[in-house]
């Protein structure tokens, strides 16, 4: 089993930055894909960025502003968010899967085995 705990969210003005963290514990050796998703009220959960094996995946909407990284020694996934926009407001979740993923499966939610509780990011204008 794997447990994921997100932190680092908060209320930020547009143009500001945040660094989200996702600490993983348990049987982390079984994890091959890690990703960040976000969900705004009334909308479906959407992919933000992910890492599977040695490959990194991003959506066009966040390229240049969001950076995903992994500290393997600490089993912690990070999401550095710069130049925040009001449309970035959402609950951000980290997820982990036991399979290597690529397009298009990495962008969906069905193949992820573990999810964190989410951390709220609110961007004011």
Would you give an account of this structure?
The protein has no helices and 11 strands. The chain is an all-beta fold. It is globular.
Main attributes of the structure:
125 residues; mainly beta; seven-stranded mixed beta sheet; four-stranded antiparallel beta sheet; 11 strands; 0% helix; 52% strand; globular
What proportion of the residues form beta strands (DSSP E)?
over 45%
Helix content: under 10%
What does the overall shape look like? globular
Order of helical and strand elements: EEEEEEEEEEE
Major β-sheet, in short? 7 strands, mixed
Summarize the structure.
Helix content is 0%, strand content 52%.
List the helices and strands and how they pair.
Elements: E1 2-7, E2 10-13, E3 18-26, E4 33-39, E5 46-52, E6 55-58, E7 66-71, E8 76-81, E9 90-97, E10 114-115, E11 119-124
Parallel strand pairs: 2-11
Antiparallel strand pairs: 1-3, 3-8, 4-5, 4-9, 5-6, 7-8, 9-10, 9-11
């Amino acid at each position: 089993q794997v447990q994921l705990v997100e932190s680092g969210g908060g209320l930020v003005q547009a143009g500001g930055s945040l660094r989200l963290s996702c600490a993983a514990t348990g049987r982390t050796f079984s994890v091959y894909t890690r990703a960040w998703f976000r969900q705004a009220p009334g909308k479906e959960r959407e992919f933000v960025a992910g890492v599977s094996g040695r490959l990194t995946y991003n959506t066009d909407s966040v390229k240049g502003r969001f950076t995903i990284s992994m500290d393997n020694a600490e089993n912690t996934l990070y999401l550095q968010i710069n130049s925040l926009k009001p449309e970035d407001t959402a609950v951000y979740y980290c997820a982990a899967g036991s399979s290597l993923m690529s397009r298009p499966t990495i962008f969906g939610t069905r193949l992820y085995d573990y999810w964190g509780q989410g951390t709220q990011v609110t961007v004011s204008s």
